[in-house]
From TrEMBL:
This is Cadherin domain-containing protein. Residues 68-148, 149-256, 257-370, 371-470 form the Cadherin domain. The lineage of its organism: Eukaryota, Metazoa, Chordata, Craniata, Vertebrata. Keywords: Calcium, Cell adhesion, Cell membrane, Glycoprotein, Membrane, Metal-binding, Repeat, Signal, Transmembrane, Transmembrane helix. GO terms for molecular function: beta-catenin binding; cadherin binding; calcium ion binding. Residues 1-21 form the signal peptide. The keyword Signal applies. It is found in: Cell membrane. It comes from the Eukaryota. One of its GO terms (cellular component) is catenin complex. Its main location: membrane. It is a single-pass type I membrane protein.
Length: 490
């Protein structure tokens, strides 16, 4: 039984291999094979794997030789190559059995070709042996640089994170053969991002190497390089950029930029009136910048501060009415603190920021003020016209102390002068009216629009000015012979 041997050439080193299983009388075919080739036994045949380097630029690269030992060189044998790639990627010299690659091969597109070989006796037209398969493997060269497939990379990490905190892992891929030396073994390094970041060489894990303050810089661009061949000479590389943003933590307390605020309030302002705003600033953002304002010192307990949570301002409001003539200025101290503070960050908030507020009370022209809320006077009836009833008194509460004019509303019985003295204009009769309800009006001379009124009640007292009278006329009868002491008849 005849056997075929494939004769490959690698690196120009031909070798001679015997056909396994051949007897002394067997016809043999000789194969030239490189050192390190792999042998596979199939039905007594010895087939070898052929290796072709990828990316060879020559138009015809010798792969190996298929030769029968029955071939005595008289050109009576014809060698044929069959299968996918035969004739297009690989050709065979039909006379010598030499196999050539006629196209540049790319292992990353196709790493293995399975072909079939056949030897035909030209004189008989018959196959010397049945066709059989053999393999041509495309050997890898380092022709692919590492590529980062998950770009763009973006990560968020809290500011002030300690050294060693994991930020993100970047991963590069190399299309070269991982089993071919170090072609696909990658090494990561940091091209940009020191001294705040570092990268683990074999994993691509980025970690923090120095604390960062978001208020100084809130984002960083880090450039990572991946090199194949574990960074050895001739290695190919690829890079990627990573945007790292710092998220805020509450490491800043709110601070008043102004140590003194000056506000004013009218003495006529009702309670609840907003008299001004104060503002603190916090370098943090979002929830970490929400504030609460409050009064720290206010002995008079006249003012309060509420927080506008939309603008983060403190609104100073009037809690009690003020009087310019009683007190025309106040001093209070306000403080501010964050609304949300994590227990771990309390060290940044040990002492609240404070500010002093001076409040000036503005004088307004107030109406006259009576000394009493109402007056009650008494006078006897039948007193002559012009008799004294009583005195009311009102004053201007303002500093200018305007003189006061008095008047009585719709009364024909009483009169009042500019001193507030009330007198009668007619004689009074208790039996006609025992009480008079008066309305006294006080008007400032300097500003007649400033007026006030007060009720005055006058009681008319009785005097004995009427003789008794019978309620009807009586007619009496007595008998002519009536004795002394005898009753009369009506």
């Amino acid at each position: 039984m005849n056997c075929y041997l494939l004769v490959p050439f690698m690196l120009g080193i031909p070798l001679l291999w015997p056909c396994l299983g051949a007897t002394e009388n067997s016809q043999t075919k000789k194969v030239q094979q490189p050192v390190g080739s792999h042998l596979r036994v199939k039905r007594g045949w010895v087939w070898n794997q052929f290796f072709v380097p990828e990316e060879m630029n020559t138009t015809s690269h010798h792969v190996g030789r298929l030769r029968s030992d029955l071939d005595n060189g008289n050109n009576s044998f014809q060698y044929k190559l069959l299968g996918a790639g035969a004739g297009s990627t690989f050709i065979i010299d039909e006379r010598t059995g030499d196999i050539y690659a006629i196209q540049k091969l790319d292992r990353e597109e196709r790493s293995l070709y399975t072909l079939r070989a056949q030897v035909i006796d030209i004189t008989t037209g018959r196959a010397v042996e049945p066709e059989s398969e053999f393999v041509i493997k495309v050997s890898d060269i380092n022709d692919n640089e590492p590529k980062f497939l998950d770009e763009p990379y973006e990560a968020i990490v809290p500011e002030m994170s300690p050294e060693g905190t994991l930020v993100i892992q970047v991963t590069a891929s190399d299309a070269d053969d991982p089993s071919s030396g170090n072609n696909a073994r990658l090494l990561y390094s940091l091209l940009q991002g020191q001294p705040y970041f570092s990268v683990e060489p074999t994993t691509g894990v980025i970690r923090i190497s120095s604390k960062m303050d978001r208020e100084l810089q809130d984002e960083y661009w880090v450039i990572i390089q991946a090199k194949d061949m574990i960074g050895q000479p001739g290695a190919l590389s690829g890079t990627t950029s990573v945007l790292i943003k710092l998220s805020d933590v509450n490491d800043n307390k709110p601070i008043f930029k102004e140590s003194l605020y000056r506000l004013t309030v009218s003495e006529a302002a009702p309670t609840g009136t907003s008299i001004g705003t104060i503002m603190a600033y916090d370098n943090d953002i979002g929830e970490n910048a929400e504030m609460d304002y409050s009064i720290e010192e206010d002995d008079s307990q006249t003012f309060d501060i509420i927080t506008n949570h939309e603008t983060q301002e403190g609104i100073v409001i009037l809690k009690k009415k003020v009087n310019f003539e009683h007190q025309n200025h106040y001093g209070i101290r306000a403080k501010v603190k964050n609304h949300h503070v994590d227990e771990k960050l309390m060290k940044y908030h040990t002492e609240a920021s404070t500010t002093f507020i001076k409040i000036q009370v503005e004088d307004v022209d107030e109406p006259p003020l009576f000394l009493l809320p109402y007056y009650i006077f008494e006078i006897f009836e039948e007193t002559p016209q012009g008799s004294f009833v009583g005195v009311v008194s009102a004053t201007d509460p303002d500093n200018r102390k305007s003189p006061i004019r008095y008047s009585i509303t719709r009364s024909k019985v009483f009169n009042i002068d500019d001193n507030g003295t009330i007198t009668t204009t007619n004689s009074l009769d208790r039996e006609i009216s025992a009480w008079y309800n008066l309305s006294i009006i006080a008007t400032e001379k300097y500003n007649i629009e400033q007026i006030s009124s007060i009720p005055v009640y006058v009681q008319v007292l009785n005097i004995n000015d009427h003789a008794p009278e019978f309620s009807q006329y009586y007619e009496t009868y007595v008998c002519e012979n009536a004795g002394s002491g005898q009753g009369l008849f009506f």
